[in-house]
Design brief:
single chain, 89 residues, mainly alpha, elongated, bacterial flagellum, transmembrane helix, cell membrane, transmembrane, cilium
Amino acid sequence: MDPVTTYEFIRQTLMAVLLASAPVLVVALGVGLMIAFFQALTQIQEMTLTFVPKIAAIFVTLALALPFMYATLTGLSDRVFDLIANGGI
């Protein structure tokens, strides 16, 4: 395996991981920002106010995005196994 193929494989792997984790990270960021703005406006500094809605939103997003994440990571593993079967690695 030449270096160009190796770098392309690493790039595909990083893109698959970023795509699979993006929905959960974006929702966690959005909910965290909304809670931070709410706390700044109302001056309520309750610790459970930050964790409970964020965890609930993450679980809901994870349940909804799981098929997309599975398809993304399955596509990557299929490419890796095809590469191994063809003797590319």
